[in-house]
Amino acid sequence: MVTPINDLPGADTSSYVKGEKLTRCKLASLYRLADLFGWAHLANTYISVRISKEQDHIIIIPRGLSFSEATASNLVKVNIIGEVVDQGSTHLKIDHTGFSPHAAIYSTRPDVKCVIHIHTLAAAAVSSMKCGILPISQESLILGDVAYYDYQGSLDDQEERIQLQKVLGPSCKVLVLRNHGVVVLGETVEEAFHYIFSVQIACEIQVQALAGAGGVDNLLVLDLQKYKALTHTIAVSGGGGVNMGSHQKWKVGEIEFEGLMRTLDNLGYRTGYAYRHPLIREKPRHKSDVEIPATVTAFSFEDDTVPLSPLKYMAQKQQREKTRWLNSPNTYMKVNVPEESRNGETSPRTKITWMKTEDSSKVSSGTPIKIEDPNQFVPLNTNPNEVLEKRNKIREQNRYDLKTAGPQSQLLAGIVVEKPPSTMQFEDDDLAPPAPPNPFSHLTEGELEEYTKTIERKQQGLEENHEFFSKSFISMEVPVMVVNGKDDMHDVEDELAKRVSRLTTSTTIENIEITIKSPEKIEEVLSPEGSPSKSPSKKKKKFRTPSFLKKNKKKEKVEA
């Protein structure tokens, strides 16, 4: 289990000044980093931050808490002389002896905001060397000017503070307390961590180098003034030199400190650190004429009685500076424009378009809508996933041109409308296909007249009857039927003979054989209804069933 650093939500923060919440979170995170790096020395090392220059209020961890227990709420706020202003969430007191170097530095250097005092093994070893911190590594060159002071265990005396002020000077950031440890100063928390990290690495390198070389004479000592422009100057410019040619200007140690804060957050420490920029680059937006569509407003009034915290007030101020306005300075009017047909002529139909008005008197006079939140026009209690799915669906419809005017009516779905076949008409041009050949172009006038007469005979039914009788033999077999108790075979033969004689008078028929067959064959020759076809061209194509046959069929059905 990890104790969260930012445990201020729910606590009473009414006595905090502007930016104190964030500063408390930074200082508690710095104590956690010192514990993870192994710089903690029980309760004998301290890190402090000044939160108010006007009142000289300083926050520090109370004596008795380990660095791993530091949180934003249990830090103690004191003034420059060590009197407690805010006890925090614990009943523990501060160590006035350990706080005296911090108070002395804050009183002599008003530009300092953070002081870190450690005495690790490497730092204490180097502080006991007469040579001090040697310029034998890159980290030692980054430190710049280093001050040395003979520390006697306390800085409460006024003469000792004056001597310390002379040693520090106006710009020194590293102070070596002889036979005690190292103190670093910073205008920000990030800058102080940058220097203390470099001091620790430089001391470790120097201790191991002296142990391996056997003395200072065997070490290659660099010229500090010669390499200062390539090391210290670049380091104090911020971002380790990455600011060159970049729009984002980082302060000293800020980019490294943000990386460490992300590490703590990923481990579950919940630092509460305010990152300047997100780690992952945002995806490029789709080009659109309307960034935020005006759909539905969801405005809620805030409770003015509740006092705003400094961080929330600062966030609102930044948001007000980035306010965008919905109204456009351009004004458009609805105009009906006649459509143009394909041949270039003006069509009677019109279409609606929006045109920019040049008349300044028609400018819309309305209250501009201020957009303070990207989701201002989204309805309340809306699922973000549903909004994204709906937006992607609309974009897909626009991309594939799937928009319709709405559901189509199905009332006329079952009605089939026969359209007359369109005849292809070709204009006189070179691209038209060649015309088919005329079949009558090689015939003479006599052949044409004979063909015309043949067609006329076929229309009258003469030619059809001739072909019918010349290609087939009509065979019929009439059964013996008794009508009213008498044989009627002779009447049937007489009736058939009369019909054949009528046909032979109009056309010449050769070799016609008539055979009487069964009544089933007669039904095949005759029409199913027993009557001649209605078409005038097929009047004499089939025989008509005699009336006595119809009566005889009915009687047979009744008997059956």
UniProtKB/TrEMBL annotation:
Feature: compositional bias, Basic residues: 536-560
Domain spans labelled Class II aldolase/adducin N-terminal: 25-207
GO molecular function: actin filament binding; calmodulin binding
Keywords: Actin-binding, Calmodulin-binding, Cell membrane, Cytoplasm, Cytoskeleton, Membrane, Phosphoprotein
Record's bilayer topology term: Peripheral membrane protein
Region of interest: Disordered: 357-383, 519-560
InterPro entries: Aldolase-II_Adducin_sf, Aldolase_II/adducin_N, Aldolase_II/adducin_N_sf
Domain of life, per lineage: Eukaryota
Biological processes, Gene Ontology terms: barbed-end actin filament capping
Subcellular location: Cell membrane; Cytoplasm, Cytoskeleton
GO cellular component, one term: postsynaptic density
Keyword Phosphoprotein: yes
The family this protein is said to belong to: Belongs to the aldolase class II family. Adducin subfamily.
Designated name of the protein: Adducin 3
Annotated source species: Molossus molossus (Pallas' mastiff bat)
Lineage of the organism: Eukaryota, Metazoa, Chordata, Craniata, Vertebrata
